[in-house]
Amino acid sequence: MNQQVQKNTLYVGGLAEEVNETILHSAFIPFGDIKDVKTPLDQATQKHRSFGFVTFLEREDAAAAMDNMDGAELFGRVLTVNYALPEKIKGGEQGWAAQPIWADADTWFERQQQEEEMQRLQKEDQASKQVAEELHRKKLAEERDGEKDEPDTKDDPMAIAEAESLKQNNS
Asked: Could you give the count of Cα atoms lying within 13 Å of 134 in the half-sphere of its Cβ?
């Protein structure tokens, strides 16, 4: 991974359902001054998603907490403690917060036009395939009808003899 790790923020995984930010703060405070504790909530259940983040003021405190708390037990669950990776900012490299809402309008319109052009081309292609298929069916039908109207008598001796007898009877 090419993301820089935040040396003073720890990821704490494997949290029990009963653990809240206060309990998490209490568990990590022996290692140094804590700047922030977060337990992201699941939007559906409004409960934490069994992990949290603890940010220390000093990197050394975070390192000591990670060394001591990784594999430790809290409320009957074994914790996983690592350095946290920085949050990814949504909306590209600079993120949505770094640009006005209308900044993407031109590229959005270009994408819409490209999609509409692709749909138009696909419809044209499909229509031309249907026309070609219909012509092919008509051609095959005409060939079958032609075979029924004019039987091939060149190689059939019985057909030749029948045709000669019809000619003699008509004369």
From this structure: 6
